[in-house]
């Protein structure tokens, strides 16, 4: 899926920043089995699902959730590297 599909109408930079914060709390946790890491991961997955069903799927029905999820994870990693 091209980056252009993540326009302000679909997924904003603020969305990525918020998701990246959650992503960081579980993906790079020193102890990923701690409750905080598990809660962050669950919130991350819930927010991705809400973005997909609320904004992306209606505007881009050809985009599969699994591809969207992978792209968001990639964007979060890139965001964290830059910040």
Helical percentage: 55-70%
Largest sheet: none
User: Based on helices, strands and strand pairing, what is the structural class?
Assistant: mainly alpha
Mean pLDDT, nearest integer? 89
Q: Count up the helices.
A: 3
Q: Give Rg in angstroms.
A: 13 Å
Domain module tally: 1
The number of distinct β-strands equals 0
How widely separated are the two ends?
Answer: 24 Å
Topology order in helix (H) and strand (E) letters: HHH
The residue ranges in which pLDDT falls below 50 over 5 or more consecutive positions are: 1-5
Net shape: globular
What fraction of the residues are assigned to beta strands by DSSP? Answer: under 5%
Question: What labels would you give this structure?
Answer:
3 helices; 70% helix; mainly alpha; 83 residues; single chain; disordered N terminus
General description of the model:
This protein is mainly alpha-helical and 83 residues long. The protein has one domain. The protein contains three helices and no strands. It has helices at residues 13-27, 35-59, 65-82. Helix 1 packs antiparallel against helix 2 (35-59). The two termini are 24 Å apart. The relative contact order is 0.20. Residues 1-5 have low confidence and may be disordered.
